[in-house]
Known about the structure:
By secondary structure, the protein is of the alpha+beta class. About 25% of the residues lie in helices and about 30% in strands. Helix 7 runs antiparallel to helix 10. The longest helix is centred in the N-terminal third of the chain and has 20 residues, at about 100-120. The model is unreliable at about 1-45 and about 155-160 (pLDDT under 50).
Amino acid sequence: MSVKRALMVGIMAVAAVVAVCGGVIWGVQAQSSGVPHAGAAPGPQSVEKTAEQQFKNIQVLKGVPADQIFPTMTFIAASLGVECEFCHVSGEFEKDDKKPKQTARKMMEMTVAINADDFDRHREVTCYTCHRGNSKPAAIPPVATEEAMASMAAPRKPEDVKKTKSSASPLPTAEQLLDKYVRAAGGAAAIEKVTSRVMKGTIDVGEKSLLIDIYCEDPEKRISFTHMPEGDNITAFNGHEGWLGVPGRPLREMHGSDLDGAAIDADLHLATHFKQMFTEAKVVGTEKIGGHDTYELVGQRDGRPPIRLYFDEQSGLLVRLVRFGETALGWLPTQIDYADYRDADGVKIPYRWTLARTSGRFTIQIAEVKENVPVDEGKFVKPAPEPPEGPGK
């Protein structure tokens, strides 16, 4: 991946970074806001377009929400280790000129049929099941070279390896872990007392390091400004809608899983909201992360993918959060690793976190934090879209 593309990927992914708001002490949606928690069932919404209503030449993904098409394409690209042009004609995505696009349709139909016929319509088989990051899946087992044996020994997915404590050291309950996390972060009273947080620092993408300013306000408002030579890249969520602004490009609205992630990241009180957010939570084992022994907790949510949390066994602080974006073919993971915890007016927050997606990763290092300071409400007002260029302009 080129430095320029890696930079753009990282900047667009800042929509998910929104852990910035309160680091780990942010949350889904405060009940006082009147907006349903991200873990709750979605409320009444306007009827959204389907893929075939919004895009040209949709053959297989008919009936799929239009806002899942681009995440689904990202899922395919990540599974095969390719770019858009592998299947599509650049700038004319509706064309069927390339054979890989026709093959992709057949493969999608095949995986849907396998899951329907053999797995009671549960999505057990996806593009990644066979491709594993290669455009052509391997059909022949490798010989026993050191490299091949190391690859074969690696777990294929978290569920393949059961990580449990011995019977002499039973796992804590989910409630015990979540309560310990709240205490480690400063206690419920201190966490709920935070009404705003303003942070300044740097964002490192590839070989580039840029300045970033982040403004958060309760309930569920967050906006970040990444300062680039050509102008600011903006990622914003105001509790109801989210958007991304890139210099020289039209405003991009968030939809679907992007909104879900923004809602999770934008609240300053996540530590105290986890119990409300999950319909069921279970500690499934332990894992070593960055030198830390951690407990892994899986939280289920109604109508949405689960969230995986990893808590330091000793400190109780959150070391990693993994959430998933829904696509028509499978889940796209977003992993956030937290480090450099410091006290900010009685609440412990990470001053550094690394966000990784299938398309790239970036790290934010905070240098300055101010709590409970006034934030201009105008920052959270979505700009009106620019009128299209035309003869009359």
